[in-house]
Design a protein that fits this description.
This protein has 132 residues and is mainly alpha-helical. It has 2 domains: 16-69, Alpha-Beta Plaits (2-Layer Sandwich), CATH 3.30.70.141; 81-121, no CATH class. Helix content is 52%, strand content 0%. The longest helix is centred in the C-terminal third of the chain and has 26 residues, at 81-106. The chain is elongated, with a radius of gyration of 25 Å.
């Protein structure tokens, strides 16, 4: 897989595998020159096997390869925009909206500190019992 020095890296974003593979082009550098002349493999690969760059083919391969090169790295899935929006809308927005409304009414001198304290005091996930 390597004929000289390499640089290993992990790319993380939504659709990272698909977008990276589009950027690097077809596996065979000769084919890449015909089909995607601006791709990395077309520009830097030398033939059908020495193609200059690797990209995982799918999420399972990516996880295996990341664990090989970076064994201590935590590999968590990146939430989709929809999952993130649902989480924020469900768990953050209701309480934060109440706090921001109160903040606007009171207009404290240090609004960030005030809001932080308000969120701590109004946290619906506070322990039901405290030790004294």
């Amino acid at each position: 897989m390597a004929s000289g020095p390499i640089v290993a890296m992990v790319l993380s974003k939504e659709n990272a595998i698909v977008e990276w593979r589009a950027l690097i082009g077809p596996t065979n550098s000769l084919k890449a020159r015909e089909e995607k002349p601006e791709s990395i493999r077309a520009r830097f690969g030398t033939d059908g096997q020495a193609n200059a760059v690797h990209g995982s083919a799918n999420p399972a391969d990516a996880r295996r390869e990341v664990n090989f090169w970076f064994p201590n790295m935590i590999v968590d899935p990146v939430p989709t925009v929809e999952e993130s929006n649902t989480y924020v809308t469900t768990y953050i927005t209701p309480l934060l909206s109440k706090g921001l409304l109160e903040l606007c009414k009171l207009k404290p001198e240090n609004p960030i500190a005030w809001l932080g304290t308000w969120l701590l005091e109004n946290n619906p996930n506070q322990p039901a019992a405290t030790l004294k």
